[in-house]
Amino acid sequence: MPDASSEFLDAPIPGQSLTTEPKSRPWEQPPKYTTAEEALDFYVPRLSDPEMIAPMVDVMERGTTVVAVAEMIQSSGVMQGLHSVDVGLIISPVLVELLVTQADLAEIEYKVGTEKSDTPDPSMVNMAMDTVSSDYFDNSVEGGEEEIMEEAPEVQPEGIMSRRMV
Amino acid sequence: MSAQILKAMQANEMHIRKGESAQPTTPKGGLLSRTGSPSKSDINTPNNIASYVKQIRAARNKYA
């Protein structure tokens, strides 16, 4: 199962975008569809095609949220140079609605991604555990048993150049 | 990016709620246009997105 650290390691290294020829990538070109309406004209027929929607329905049935699938669709559109990130975000509510409709038509169980989960946020759990553990260690110190530090025995220099003690 | 998509969805919901009392909007351009030939001029994108969502929900309630 992926965690935050693995996502961090998957990120591109600084300067990686400068290792290719400028404007050689599709997303560095002017987008093909500049308005949300044009982008939707591209997406709506494709998201209504049973052959194209089938793998997405499978993914949603396996537990991937609808929002994550919509994000994947619009991100791939940006990477192909179809539209800008802004247009992708603007049309994302429509993509989510289309995916929800397809999931309903396929009669599968799915998660939209807006539901409040029963499990607490892992970061909050970690914070609580840190607080509890720090309190525990603080109490052990405040217990009154102050450890008396034994003085280390004085070590006499034994080297050749050391001063002799008379 | 998912957080931004959720924000866009919330903004769209607010736009739909604001326009509930108003007349139902139909997109002036795009695939779901009801006004004939798609026009790229005078496009009100928030209204169009809200209209798309409302029409898709209506179709879902009817057929799904």
Q: What does this 3D model show about the protein?
A:
- The complex is a heterodimer of chains A (166) and B (64).
- Chain A is an all-alpha fold and 166 residues long.
- Chain A has a domain at 33-105.
- Chain A is 53% helix and 0% strand.
- Chain A has 6 helices and no strands.
- Chain A has helices at residues 4-10, 36-47, 50-61, 66-79, 85-106, 122-142.
- In chain A, helix 4 crosses helix 5.
- The radius of gyration of chain A is 30 Å and the shape is elongated.
- In chain B, helix 1 (2-18) packs across helix 2 (45-63).
- The radius of gyration of chain B is 13 Å and the shape is globular.
- The model of chain B has no long low-confidence stretch (mean pLDDT 74).
- Chain B is an all-alpha fold.
- Helix content of chain B is 56%, strand content 0%.
- Chain B is built from 2 helices and no strands.
- Chain B has helices spanning 2-18, 45-63.
Structural descriptors:
heterodimer; A: 166 residues; mainly alpha; 6 helices; elongated; B: globular
List the helices and strands and how they pair.
The complex is a heterodimer of chains A (166) and B (64).
Chain A lengths: L3 H7 L25 H12 L2 H12 L4 H14 L5 H22 L15 H21 L24
Helix pairs in contact in A: 2-5, 3-5, 4-5
Chain B lengths: L1 H17 L26 H19 L1
Helix pairs in contact in B: 1-2
Mean model confidence by pLDDT of chain A = 83
> Strand share of the residues of chain B?
under 5%
The residue-averaged pLDDT of chain B reads 74
Strand content of chain A: under 5%
Shape of chain A: elongated
- Tertiary shape of chain B: globular
C-alpha end-to-end distance of chain A:
70 Å
Query: Number of helical runs of chain A?
Result: 6
Oligomer: heterodimer
Helix-strand topology string of chain A:
HHHHHH
Over the alpha carbons, how many angstroms does the gyration radius of chain A reach? 30 Å
Give a short account of the largest sheet of chain B: none
